[in-house]
Amino acid sequence: MVRITSRRQETRLEVQELTKRFSVGRRGLWDRVTRKRQKYVRAVGGATFVVGAGETLVILGESGSGKTTLGRLIVGLEKPDSGKIALSGDAVLPVREHRTQRGRLQMVFQDPGSSLDPFMKVMDVIAEPLTRSGISGSARTEKVDQAVDSVGLDRSVLDRRASELSGGQKQRVSVARAIVSSPEVIVLDEPTSSIDVSIQAQVLNMLVRLQQKNHYAYVLITHDPNVASFMADSVAVMYLGKIVEQGPAARVMLQPKHPYTQALLSSTPRLHERSIPEVIKGEPPSLINLPPGCPYAPRCPYAIKVCGEREPEDYEVEGAVVSCYMYDEDVKRQFGAAP
Amino acid sequence: MEVLHVEGLSVDYRTGGGTLHALKGVSLSIHEGEIVGVVGESGSGKSTLALAVSRLLRTPPAVQREGSITFRGTEISQMRPSEIDEVRGTGIFMVFQDPFLSLNPLMRVKDQIAEVIAVRMKRSSAPFDRSSAEAEAVAHLKTVRIGDAEDIAERYPHQISGGQIQRVMLAMALAARPQLLVADEPTTALDVTTQAQILAVFKEIVEKTKMGVLYVTHDLAVAGVICDSMAVLYGGMVQEAGPTEKILFEPKHPYTVGLMDSIPSKTKKEGPLTAIRGAFNPQGLEGICSFAPRCPLAHEECRRGVPAQNPVDGRTVRCVNYGENYEP
Question: Could you tell me how many CB contacts below 8 A there are between chain A and chain B?
Answer without folding.
Answer: 131
